[in-house]
Design a protein that fits this description.
heterotrimer, A mainly alpha, B alpha/beta, C mainly alpha, B: alpha/beta, D-Maltodextrin-Binding Protein, domain 2, 9-stranded mixed beta sheet, 3-stranded mixed beta sheet, 14 strands, elongated, C: mainly alpha, MetI-like fold, 2 domains, two-stranded antiparallel sheet, 15 helices, 71% helix, MetI-like (chain A), membrane (chain A), Phosphate transport system permease protein (chain A), Phosphate_Transport_Permease (chain A), phosphate transport (chain A)
Amino acid sequence: MSTSAAATPTPQKQSDPPETKARTAKRPGDLIFSGLSIGSGLLIFLTLLLVAVFLTIRSLPAIQSSREVTGDADAVSLLEYTAPLVFGTVFAAVLALLMAVPVAVGIALFISHFAPRRLATPLGFMIDLLAAVPSVVFGLWGGVWLVPRLEPLYMWLNTYLGWIPLFAGEPSAPMRNLATASVVLAVMILPIITAVSREVFLQTPRLQEEAALALGATRFETIRTVVLPFGRSGVVSASMLGLGRALGETMAVLMVLSPGSSFSLHILEVGRHNSIAANIASQSAEATPDVMARLIFTGLVLFVITFVINAIARAVVARSTQG
Amino acid sequence: MNARKNKLVALAALGLTGALALSACGGGSPSADGGSDAGGAQPGAASGQLAGAGASSAESAQGAWTQNFIALNPEAQVTYDSVGSSAGREQFLAGGVQFAGSDAALTEDELAQSAEACQGGTAFDLPVYISPIAVVFNLEGVEDLQLSAPTIAGIFAGTITTWNDPAIVADNPEATLPDLAITPVHRSDGSGTTENFTSYLSETAGDVWTHGEVDEWPIEGGQSGDGTSGLVSVVEGGNGTIGYADASKAGNLGIAKVKVGEEYIEYSPEAAAKAVELSPRAEGRSEHDIVMELDRTIDDPGAYPIVLVSYLVLCDTYADQETADLVKAYAGYVVSPEGQEASAQAAGSAPLTEGLSTDATAAIESIKAAA
Amino acid sequence: MSTTTTSKPTHSELLTGSATAENRLPGWHMLLTALAAVLLAVLVLALFGSVSIGGVLVLGYGLHLVIGYLYSRVREGRRWAADRLVTMLVYGAFAVAMIPLISLLWEVLHRGIVRIIGPIPLQFWTMDMAGVIGGMDTGGISHAIVGTLLITLGASLISVPIGLFTSIFLVEYARYGALKVLGRGVTFLVDVMTGIPSIVAGLFGLALFITITNDPGIRIGLMGSVALSVLMIPTVVRSSEEMLRLVPMELREAAYGLGVPKWLTIVRVVLRTAIAGLTTSVTLAVARVIGETAPLLLTVGALPLMNANLFEGRMQTLPTFINSQYRSGNAVCNSDVMTNPITQIDYACSTTINYDRAWAAALTLILIVMLLNVIARLVSYYFSPKLGR
């Protein structure tokens, strides 16, 4: 209903079929339109440049006065300060992604291919609702409702699966640990991944699906052979959006996690990890200019992390579309 | 896009000039002595716009002051952004806001820097918000708890780990304490509350608490909460938890009595105010720069030593008469008995004692406009 | 929840006729295995002495994955068993997602509704916070609602055109030569932009306006809009790009073949075809930024009164309101009655009032986004071309 699927069959995805030769006859409408489009692209470039330049300038004092640059043993080591934060940030986001992507793809498939048609739209709407919940509320919910309910699960994991380093250590109530933060993050990025994946799955060429079914494929086989390959880049792109949000999420982590600063793998232990964004938010209020510069430096690092992760994701997408 | 941006800037500029024009028109009503007799108690005396920023600890109090002040002076608009002490001082020194709220007084460097924002004059601090910090706990079956300074220090430093530790039992001979692990909860953000609490620990039990006076919790690991409300909810969420929080936010939690001298005393606004009154003023400050050197080791049984003092930071010189008058009226209201009563009602703070109030009023009187 | 069964055959199954062609079993067989799995779960948990509804559901679901699969494997064959398993997994995924959704909405609803319907119905939405201090049992959020709507509208007005044109550039123009290189660069930068922490976007908005106006104390709604649009643009670009790419190339080629100019093709064919997806992406982008707290804390300040001017003065918004109310924590009640200094009306004192307001404001925010969603869906329903499913 809410979708606009193509009625025409597309043999292959939009794998850049040779376009009709770029028009040489320039109409004024075309000129204006292409100008606006290219201009917007350049504007993005400019905005990002401004943000990056601003971050760098603001974090210069921290870099200049750090132990790494001055060689002064008393100076604060930026590496020692930032590395555990980076670890915590990436760890939490990756855990969240591992939990969220399978569930999100499942929901997207449920809505696009399994649920009764009449229910699909309202169900999708409900999931979209989750995207609307402000992160402060996720924080409240995570801290008040979720933390005590996860306690038995954590104790069970710790007792019976404690030989896995992830679940080792000594969890203590209230369970304001990295695992809880990841669960909240996973819930938060679920709707974004679901919404985009669902939209892509719904765009799967109808005839291809019906062809597969006509050959006697089960619904699962149809999904595996037609829907998933078609939607793969969409799912990866959606996951990247989710990862971006998980990496930068501030309030929910701030309100759910008792922070610490270590490289511990024990996600059930309290006071071991922290994320960059939450650290900025909690420390910036009472920060002296030195500390603020250091915090902005960590922001710059977060920036670079997303840069790297996106580069990797891009490579993955490129390979999957070639193959 | 450039064209659009320019247009927006022009619009924004238009708005700003409008604001300036408005405040210029509104000014002019003479309220030079607004500060002396009970601040802006005369309704409608002050007008114009005033912006402040700073400590979130004083947010409720500042809310009460600004709202009451606006009620008394309908022509005036005063706002307060709770952005944190440091950010508030920074904005103030950059000339972005006319006053700042801060949990710590200006440093010497900052005083030197203030000449720029203060039209060649200097900035000064006024203690305006005195708030007791309570040691809150959540322990099933125990409602009354008495603790001495070394015991509190031991609990938070991690050397006392169970509720039936001999040190706690010695403080509470009558209570039955369970054999349960103690979960100390600290603030995860940097805060004036932590700074004042650790100041108390290091001054009264320096041999147990060896981490000194810090605004960020120095010990790795452990339970923590973001902000006062975050900390309170963590303490509420566990059993055997103990933390420290602005006393007015303690809610339903148990509050420990703290040993002062030979007695265990309960926190109260009056006892907090007394501790501040008994403390000496910091030395080497100018006459109007009222900074307290809090004495945590007092043994007067009527004084509660775990207390936070939040300052109002002002300039002694403002760019024009209207601003100077408005600041005088507002600050005058804040330190007046009415203002202190309003913050006590809204934020549970302790009212300024008479002596401090008089000194503060005198300091406010000295505010003038640049020639 | 764990009793996952395939309902009546959907039309796709009828299309293939596979239900009869192979040895398929009716859906109630799955109900039976589900029942068996739940019973087994109860038994196992009873052995360990810890029967709870949650435990039965979780263990029962896990057992049913095994039992149902094996049963189907024996009776229907491997391929259909795999299909059954995936169906169960997909239903399970949906059920798992429903847990946080329902509990969260319930928490917000039952805690938030109190303030909205009482003491005077809907007064919470029509009042502002002028003169409301301490534990005064009153106050409202009209100013915050107006602020949030205006600032988000401002952010959308900035980011939707930029985001849409950028995605058009990426999909329609960045195909050959230099533009293709530029397009790759832009795509990459947009990816990086998605990772900008919201607090950094706030700092950026702050620095930008301070630099332009040379006034370090400047706090206006527009600054918030600019900061939010930094967060919103990449979301709009990424998802609209995805939607535009899904428009079949044949549609464009058909239009070109009829001699339609490229820009008209984009407007009339590409955008028209993708309108539903585009509305979804814009709605999602709005949903993402409407609850942002950190950038607004830095850029728009706080104000207890109504200010509907984006270009002048501080503004209150719902997220910052929720945040400040939550952080205020328990209110102080030294006396039973508190007087509003402006209106001189007496109110009762409530220690939990700050939390009540926070939850009610959160509920309001969610309702606003729901409304936006409904509008977006109606728009896409009425404007999208009626083809396909």
